[in-house]
């Protein structure tokens, strides 16, 4: 079978990481096109991953690691519609997703969309409905924690029933730093959204109510930004989850969680890799960012997505999962503003998906 030809929209940190991954580590796929408002950045990447100099306007040609040229296409919607692109990775900012997702659906192109699916619940629901009308799943959402071997093992353990019924989930999610433009609502929509998905997925239940609190912020953020945040999720099955999200922690990237069930607890993300003793200290390294911590998860996620696309399927979080997370985050932002618990307004799944 011939390689799936991939186009990537947005080649900032995540998109560039996926581009490298497709070219160097993923089998059955080839990077053929990239698009980014920063054309110089896209050109540089295309040249580097094509393994040669630019040839013919904005196209980069040469024998790259995956043996082909990577074309730079200025207009992301043109990339989505391009004949040489079989499937798309959307790594553009969330505000651009809705239009780009609709274009993917219109052209019948499978798409791996980084979170958030869209900026609000209403537009996410429209995406779910539009995909449903096509009668086949084309959208997979980039909640990569589901592919992390530790998270996957935790899910398996909880599903086995060995620990009894899950009661509580404690999550910690810390980033080293984010720019001053990373506002309070982005901490919910772009960061906490991961734990929203983790809680729904691990406990197999929707989140029905959310409260987001914020202590006096760290001095590392501009006035008005609420960082860290502390949220409580109430799930429809009676379980509860809490999450600390702190995106300017200064130290490094830390993601861990502990599930508490009737007959035991299980913790992942302790980061017990290599422990060194040197210069009067002992310990391990704190990853710099999510690309390091979840490197393997991203590889597994993308490889499984490519394999699934070959079968005409998805193999991971669906558009519905993206919509459900968007609905929780919308309620979370309202709670952050009001200081009150906010009920999640979620459409009835059976009504929407039949
Ligand atoms: C980023 O977009 C991610 O997805 C990271 O996993 C998360 O830790 C970070 O806060 C987000 O900005």
Automatic annotation (TrEMBL):
One of its GO terms (molecular function) is inositol 2-dehydrogenase (NAD+) activity. Its EC number is 1.1.1.18. It catalyses: myo-inositol + NAD(+) = scyllo-inosose + NADH + H(+). GO terms for biological process: inositol catabolic process. Residues 4-142 form the Gfo/Idh/MocA-like oxidoreductase N-terminal domain. Keywords: NAD, Oxidoreductase. It holds the Pfam family GFO_IDH_MocA. Belongs to the Gfo/Idh/MocA family. Involved in the oxidation of myo-inositol (MI) to 2-keto-myo-inositol (2KMI or 2-inosose). This is Inositol 2-dehydrogenase. It comes from Kribbella sandramycini. The gene is iolG.
